[in-house]
Design goal:
The chain has 307 residues and is α+β, with helices and mostly antiparallel strands. The chain contains 13 helices and nine strands. 47% of the residues are buried.
Length: 307
Amino acid sequence: MKRAALVAGVLVFALLLPTLFMGVLLALSGDQPAPSEQALEEIPPELIGLYQAAAGTCEGLDWTVLAAIHKVESGFGTGHATSSAGAQGPMQFLPSTFSAYGVDGDGDGRKDIDNVTDAVFSAANLLCANGAGEPARLPSAIWNYNHSDAYVNEVLALSGSYGVLAAPGGVAHAAAADLLRNPRVILTSRARGDLEAGIVDQRLVSLLAWIAGRHTISVTVFKTGHSKYTRSGRVSYHFYGRAADIFFVDGLRVSSTSNAARRLVMEIASVSGSFRPDELGHPFGAIGFPGAFTDADHAGHIHVAFS
């Protein structure tokens, strides 16, 4: 019923607002997440089309970020609301900020801080002006929306839970040579040697190629240089060339305080299908992903592996 309601809601929205419908098409033609089960349960279906349309005005911005901000700011409210700090409307803009970044999202000739369409399009405009279309700058853009590290972490986590990322078809055909010549994949000599020798699993190559379309990553090890056994005594997936360790994301060392790395972990956790890894080690605590874990050995890198 939720899926049927979503389709119906988007169609009605498209008929009422042709301009927004074009935005939806633009958003869906890119690497945009599909709504997750949580999104379908929590978000009013007509709003998903709105978020997608607004995100389509900022290349690289996922609609789920707008949905998460709308949830945190007003619980998906669509009308008047004023905070104790003077922020107004469904996306909680200060009037001065809306004056600078507000846009006429619904094409009625007015920019209305209390109009949900204008507010969501204006939020996309503000985020984009602060670099939200670039994964490495997204946390900073969200911080500029609300100057709180806790707010940034909440929005990123919620955004990750609202989307399911399916790797594009072209990634299925990624080869080791694609990673070797990709300037956004930085490799140690041992990792490069494993790729050149053809011992890295095809699924892992494809996943890393997809990640490199969104982030610059540094891969330190596939098989060579990693111990054969894990601490539990079983043979590591690294031994079979089916695991990779990522130590830098977008130029920053992976750590529990790295927002770029946190964003990547949430993106990997949202991947579906044959590119979904069976292990995801990281420093960010519990997330809803089978095979994900945090421990002392993974406090400084992201581990992805296939069984």
